[in-house]
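Exercise 7. Predict the joint structure of the components listed below.
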Amino acid sequence: MATSKNKKNLVGIPEPSLRRLPLYLSYIKNSDFIERKFISATHIAKDLNLDPTQVTKDIAYMDIIGKTRVGYDVNELIETLEDFLGYRNTNKAFLIGAGNLGTALMKYGGFEKSGLKIIAAFDNDPQIIGKEIENIKIMPVEKFANLVSRMHISVGILTVPAAVAQEYADLMISCGIKAIWNFAPLPLKTNDETIIENTSIYSNLAVLLKKLNP
Amino acid sequence: MATSKNKKNLVGIPEPSLRRLPLYLSYIKNSDFIERKFISATHIAKDLNLDPTQVTKDIAYMDIIGKTRVGYDVNELIETLEDFLGYRNTNKAFLIGAGNLGTALMKYGGFEKSGLKIIAAFDNDPQIIGKEIENIKIMPVEKFANLVSRMHISVGILTVPAAVAQEYADLMISCGIKAIWNFAPLPLKTNDETIIENTSIYSNLAVLLKKLNP
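Solution:
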């Protein structure tokens, strides 16, 4: 089933289940259930077009028990999801590649509520070095290595062109970055220790367009 | 295996294979192989950390034959990939939700080379209606329905908050949008006819952080 060779153990929760948890959280927080006291797995499943047994199983991986017939306490479920997903922690990240996509991520600002804070950005373009985006400073990439160790940064966000993605991934790994969030349209070669998560926008686009024009 | 109920037939190519094709293209175009005449599946596989048999199979879904011992003609492979992925066509898209993420996608500009052109954006915020981003005009969402049919738009890009994602997805579907690229952190309920492709940034982030802090 796995398409990636990078399979760190998720301590008891299968990856597909983990991927659905943020959707449940987003759904519950954004719907009028926030005004209700209880919500059932069946209700969530129906609204999200998923299988109720699957939803029940996914939620059971966390430390929460629903009540017969009424379901889960809404506030408790929100709290449990946020705790389990680490939304109350702050993981510090450095970003390499402050072009359009990198800038977009800095401006997006939604990650901080989800456990990730972009501390600084790095680029090699003198035109943008020195600028600030949403209080995030863009610095020359030569300073990356030194600052990673000094500031105990564990996450690297990679938003560079494919041609240089491997080079900067290697830099991140050699500096002690533990997890790379890769937006470059290229799978990265790494050691088995480094966590890699790919957001492959062009793969998504390809599937969409191929289904539209088979 | 399928996590989505939305399974349009991809005429002969499995979805995981299709998802890898843009990576091959990006890899070949961005590496120094562009200066070589031939490239083998083994070579691609090695550099992308994939299984050579898989790469050979993926490429075999397209109309190209490699030569024994040397592999594929590089230019022919690029052309075949671009044709197969529809990069030479233009699919017209409307975007709903011109906030940070929507703006980022408009500024990104890389989609046009990949078969997708954002024609216009729509929002309900008077502060941003009337603005232009990279020559893409932001219009009131009330005009969406009329313009979709008048301009024969087939793709809808959804970059709104989760709370209103279903509402605007319903609008897109009722107007005749055939494929929705959903960036909202919520699975959409649709009919079986509409193609949905989710880019679930928060699911990716959750997996990365859970692996980092198990």
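Discussion. The first strand of chain B starts at residue 38 and ends at 39.
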